[in-house]
Amino acid sequence: MNLKVYTTDVLIIGGGTAGCAAAIRLKESGLRVIIAEKANIIRSGCLASGVNALNAYISKGHTPQDYVDYAMNDADGVAREDLLLSISRRFNHVTRELEEAGLPILKDRLGHYATRGWRNIKINGENIKPILAKQVEECPLVEVINHVNITDFIIRDNRVYGAVGFMVDTREAVEIYAEATLIATGGAAGMYRPNNPGFSRHKMWYPPFNTGAGLAMGIRAGAEMTTFEMRFVALRCKDTIAPTGTIASGVGSPQLNAKGEEYQRKYGNTTSERVYAFVAENMKGNGPCYLKTEGISQETDDDLIKAYLNMAPQQTLKWMSGKFPSEENVEIEGSEPYVVGGHTGSGYWVKEDRSTTIKALYAAGDIAGGAPQKYVTGALAEGEIAAEGILQFMKDNTKNRMPHPKNFDEDVAEIVKQYDRFFDNDGIGYSTDDLEETMQKIMDQYAGGISTYYRFNEAGLELADKKIQVVMRLSDTLKAKDDYDLMKIYELRERLIVCRVLIAHLKARKETRWPVFNSNSDHPEKSEKYRNVFVNSVYKDGEIKIKYRKIRKDKEPVAQAVQ
Amino acid sequence: MSIKINPKKCIGCRRCVDECPGNLFAMDENRKAYIRDVRDCWGCATCLKICPLNAISMYLGADIGGDGTTMIVKPVGNVLHWIFESPEGQKLFVDTDRTQSNKY
C-alpha cells in the first residue's frame, strides 16, 4: 500500500461538531491544523440531517451553575462539576457565534431567543453542519483531509505524535505527524442489535457511522476511560427512531399507554427515568405506548411536518405515508444502547483543559466523558476548550518537540502491514456483516439490549465477554476486497473493543443507579457504596483494569478502592 | 430507510460519492452512482439535497412502515421544496425555509 506523509502542528481526528469548533478556535493562532475526516465534513457526524433545538442554553434569569445542577441531578451525582461548569459558561457565547454564522434562532417579540423550557432554544438546524464546515473552510491554515479512516495513534512513552489511517476511496495509507492531537470522532452506535435489524438496520438514532473509532484507539493506547456503563438509550418515535423532544416538550404531549393512561409521572423525570417509564409500562404488558398528539391543530401538524424535515426527514415521510400526528398518536420505543458522552458520561477521562491521560492527546464532544447533557452547544464549547488547552500545551512545550518521523518508521510499517493483511486474507467464509450481526446478538442477549428490556446480570456479562473475544479472533480472518471493505472491517473491530470495555464497566458498577441506562438484575437498587463514584478503566495487554475514582467537589477525583 | 438513484437522470457528478456521511456511494462502469448496500443508509437526506438533477429519492423500508411513498427535495435558494409521491402517483408538497426557525 502506498504511504502519504503529512506533518502539521495540530491534528484533529473527526470533523464533526467538536472537531470543527476546535479548528475554528485555532484560526488566529498561527498554527497549522489538519482535520482528518472519515467522510466529508460538510455533513459528517451527528448533525448530518440537522437538529431543531439547542438543548443547552442559559436563558434569562438562570446561571451556568443552574445547568450544572440540572446535569448533576440527571446523572444522580456521577458527573464532573468542573467539566460541566466549563461548558455551561460558554453555551451562550457559542450560540451567539452560530447565529452570527447564519443559524436561524426563533425570537420572541422582545427580540430574545424563544425558549422551550429554561434551557432549550428553537432553531432551524437543517443546515447547521454546512454552516460549521463553511467556517472551517475560511480558516487559511486548516487543511481538511476528507475520506480518511484513522485507525491508530503514533505513540511512544505515553505521548501521541499523530496518527495513521487509510483513504476509503483509494488504495493509500496516510501518516500524519502532529505536535498535539485532538480526538473528536464521537461515540459508538451499532454494538447492540438495533431496533430494525433487517432492511432498516441503519435507521438508528445515533449515526451508524460513529463506530467508536477514537474510543478504540484510546483504549488500545492505554488511555483511561470513564463511565461507559452509563449507556444512553433514547426514547424515540417508533420505527423511524426520530427524536421525541419536539413533540413531548415542544407540543407538550404526554406519554400514554395502551389503556390511554398517562403514566410518566409515576417514574420520575430524569432522562433515564423517562425512558424507564416506557420500558416499565411495556414490562407490565401496558404497551404499545404513545405520545398523545391526536386532536392537535392543523397548524401544529404543519409545523411538526416541517420541524421534522429539518432534523429527521424520515418521520415526515412516515406521516406522509400514513396518518398525520393530529389523526394518530405517535408510537414510541426505546433505542438500542449507545456509548455517547454528549448525552451520558461515557468517554475519555479528561482534565478541565480536555487533556487525556495520554500526553499531547486531547478529547472533545461525544468522545469525552464526565460531562453528560452537553449536546450541540456543549460539543462546540468543548472543542473550543480543547483548542485552548492545545494552545497552552504548545506554548509550554517549545523545547520538547517531536522527533523526526523516521523514528516511527517501524511502528507505522506495522500498522500498514495490518491493512495489507486484510487484503491478503483468503477469508474462511464469514463476512463483516455476519460478524457484526453476531456481535449485536451477543450484546443484545447478554449485555442488556432491547430484547431483555435492557437488563443484564454478571453471569450473562461474563458469557458476553467470552463470546465477543471469539468474534474478535474471527475478525482477524476477514477479507477486504476494496478500501471500503477495509473500513467496514475496522469499524467492526472498533466496536468489538468498545463492547469489551463496556461489558467490564457494566460488571464493575454493582448497583442500578440509572434504570435502563444501567439495569443490573443482580443489583436492582442503588447502592451507597457507588454514590459519587466513577467507574474508570485502563486497557493493558488484552486486560481491562477497573479503577474506581471518588468524586470530590471542585477537585479532580482521586483513585479509591470501593470493595 | 433507503434511497434509490434514477440512472437515467444521474450525470456522474460524484457529489453524492463525495458528501454522503457514510461513504455509501460508488460509481459503476457507466459512470453512474450507485449505493453499495441499501440497508446501510441512515436516512439523513444529504444526497437528496445535493443531487443537481434530483435523481435520488428516499423511501421507508417496509419493516418501518413504508408504503412505497417516495420523497425528493429541490432546493431553490434558501427554500427546500419537498415532494412526496404515493405509489398511486398522488403528490404532496411541503416547503421549508432555511432562514426560518422551527416553532417547536
CATH superfamily of the domain at 407-559 in chain A: Fumarate reductase/succinate dehydrogenase flavoprotein-like, C-terminal domain
The proportion of residues forming helix of chain A, as a percent range, comes to 25-40%
Q: If classified by CATH, what would the architecture of chain B be?
A: 2-Layer Sandwich
Tell me, what's the shape of chain B?
globular
Helix count of chain A? 15
Return residue spans of chain A where pLDDT drops below 50 for at least 5 consecutive residues: none
Rough outline of chain A: globular
- Measure the end-to-end span of chain A: 50 Å
Average pLDDT over all residues of chain B: 96
Q: Roughly what fraction of the amino acids of chain A lie in strands?
A: 15-25%
CATH class of chain B: Alpha Beta
Q: How would you describe what is shown here?
A:
In chain A, helix 6 (213-221) crosses helix 15 (483-508), helix 9 crosses helix 10 (313-321) and helix 14 (458-475) packs antiparallel against helix 15. Chain A is 35% helix and 18% strand. The longest helix of chain A has 26 residues, at 483-508. Chain A contains 15 helices and 21 strands. Chain A has helices at 17-25, 64-74, 81-88, 91-101, 128-137, 213-221, 245-251, 271-283, 298-309, 313-321, 375-396, 409-424, 432-446, 458-475, 483-508; strands at 2-13, 33-36, 53-54, 115-116, 120-122, 142-145, 148-156, 159-167, 172-183, 225-226, 235-237, 255-256, 290-291, 330-334, 347-348, 361-363, 455-456, 519-520, 533-540, 543-552, 555-559. In chain B, the strands form 2 sheets. Chain B has a 5-stranded antiparallel β-sheet. A two-stranded antiparallel ribbon of chain B has the order 2-3. In chain B, a hairpin with a 2-residue loop joins strand 5 (70-76) and strand 6. Chain B starts with a strand and ends in a 7-residue tail after the last strand. Classes of the chains: A alpha+beta (563), B mainly beta (104). At the A-B interface, helix 7, helix 9 and helix 10 of A face helix 1, strand 6 and strand 7 of B.
